[in-house]
Design brief:
Mean pLDDT: 94
Structural class: alpha/beta
Strand order of the largest sheet: 1-2-3-6-8-9
Strand content: 15-25%
Largest sheet: 6 strands, mixed
Low-confidence stretches: 1-8
Helix content: 10-25%
Number of strands: 15
Length: about 300
């Protein structure tokens, strides 16, 4: 992949939309020359206590796309999220565009289809998405190019998107003062995560880096844009000088202390379906399943 071209290519215009309920950042990325755009990691509002779905957050995105007269080409998922429901399907119904995720989503689908005992006709080949992308594959965004970087470790299907001088890294890296993603989800691997981070840190130092979440330490305001240089210099888990063995040992110790995300089961059931909700049952109601563990 021509990473060294990132300094020479024009940069996209980027707007971040922070969702306080899930600490997720959704990005509206546009090519200023053509008015074509992509949306990365859209969030569907979900009230777990009431089982209520809404599109309040998505409506802000839709209004902004329409206000600027943009054409939505792509709805890009960095991975199958375990902490929020994807708004990809609802967004597509409203604005069009094609849904995209990394080709290794099939491994994630296979695991959770088995765990959730989904119907035998649930396909685990990624067909729920419009396009599956591989490492080093390219998509067009107006006059810009979207370069796909396979960055497994958090999940096997994680990808980052390099668009001009900006890279969108999902949950692989967070802001330097917070660190890196967990690697204990099914198919996750701390060794792979370290190597994926090194690929990202090999980009030009001036590359703008946009993270998928922010959990502000010390009471600072939410933030989601940094640079490769800042990550190299001060990421608390993966700055220059940290070797793989040290990182893996620390990451595994830290992950062993983490609880499962609060929206793990609702999120995965929707997100492996490209944001579509489970089907309506014979009583006219949709259901999300939660597997129980412990005493029987």
């Amino acid at each position: 992949m021509p990473h060294d071209r990132a300094m020479l290519r024009p940069g996209p215009q980027v707007q971040g939309f922070f969702d306080p309920a899930t600490s997720t950042v959704t990005y509206l990325v546009q090519d200023p020359a053509s008015r074509h755009c992509a949306i990365i990691d859209p969030v569907l509002d979900y009230e777990s206590g009431a089982g209520r779905i809404s599109s309040r957050g998505l409506s802000l995105l839709v209004d902004e796309v329409r206000r600027q007269g943009l054409t939505l080409d792509w709805i890009l998922e960095t991975h199958a999220h375990a902490d929020h429901l994807s708004g990809a399907h609802r967004l597509q119904q409203t604005l069009g565009g094609r849904t995209v995720i990394g080709e290794h989503i099939s491994a994630v689908q296979e695991h959770f289809a088995n765990t959730l005992n989904l119907r035998s006709d649930f396909p685990c080949d990624g067909r729920q998405f419009d396009r599956l992308v591989a490492d080093r594959e390219q998509l067009e965004l107006g006059q810009l190019s979207i370069d796909v970087i396979h960055t497994p470790g958090h999940t096997p299907a994680c990808v980052s998107y390099l668009i001009g001088d900006a890279v969108f890294v999902g949950d692989t890296l967070f802001m330097p003062d917070y660190g890196t993603a967990r690697a204990d989800f099914p198919g996750g691997d701390a060794h792979q995560l370290f190597r994926s981070i090194q690929r990202l840190l090999a980009l030009p130092r001036t590359t703008r880096m946009f993270v998928g979440h922010d959990y502000p330490p010390g009471g600072r305001s939410p933030s989601w844009e940094t640079t490769v240089a800042a990550q190299r210099e001060s990421n608390r888990h993966a700055h220059e000088g940290i070797d793989e063995a040290t990182f893996v040992q620390w990451r595994r110790q830290r992950d062993a202390q983490l609880a499962a995300p609060a929206l793990l089961w609702p999120s995965l059931q929707v997100n492996i379906r490209a944001g579509q909700l489970p089907g309506i049952e014979d009583n006219g109601v949709r259901y999300l399943k939660i597997p129980l563990s412990g005493e029987t």
